[in-house]
Amino acid sequence: MRLLLVEDDNHVAAALSAVLTRHGFDVTYARNGEEALRALIPESDGFGVVLLDLGLPDQDGYEVCGKIRKRTSTPVIMVTARSDVRSRIHGLNLGADDYVVKPYDTGELLARIHAVSRRTAHEEAAQTAEGLLHLGPMRIELPTRQVSVDGSVVQLTRKEFDLLALLAQRPGVVFRREQIISEVWQTSWEGTGRTLEVHVASLRAKLRLPALIETVRGVGYRLVAPAT
Fold first, then answer.
1. Cα(120)–Cα(34) distance, rounded to whole angstroms?
2. According to the model, what pLDDT value does residue 155 have?
3. Helices (H), the chain
4. Long-range contacts of 182-185 (CB under 8 A, 24+ apart)
5. DNA-binding residues per UniProt (predicted)?
């Protein structure tokens, strides 16, 4: 997932960028509101999440959030030391999707990023015409849980379909192994890693698209949309 980090403190930004990168994020760093808005101009849909610090040197963070929301639907998570309820309500009313108060636990921040990402993915899926996903020669019917390749139906198990649907709803996005296990198997990562690997191998074989699901070493998997 591409993530836009808006933070004026270089030390904080460097430390947080390192953590996010280790967890599979492609981080773009903006030091102020103007840089953040410029980053969103050419490819407003290129970022999965914006982490927006409110204490910016050039513009009020709330003002920046309002401008972001006018030009893109990319989820925004406000990060600030302002913990009072009125500030939180104001941020959410401006269009922020979540609000994290400093100092925060890194694990909680990662969980909130993924929670916002999941909500966005579900909303995008709901907006897909008739619940259909077309990826090259592959067609996925979400309501009927049917998959076909070049017009031929492919029989998948329940978990195989759940895994494929999760990846296919956000092509190109890297899903961490822990996240996939949590979403598909509704359990923790421990002891389930081999099960995930087996299901990925099975999908590659059944769909006869070996390059469809790419392994991102040390992180997880992503779906590479096949050519039509």
1. 25
2. 94
3. 10-22, 33-40, 61-71, 85-93, 106-127, 158-168, 177-180, 193-207
4. 183/118, 184/159, 185/159
5. 130-225
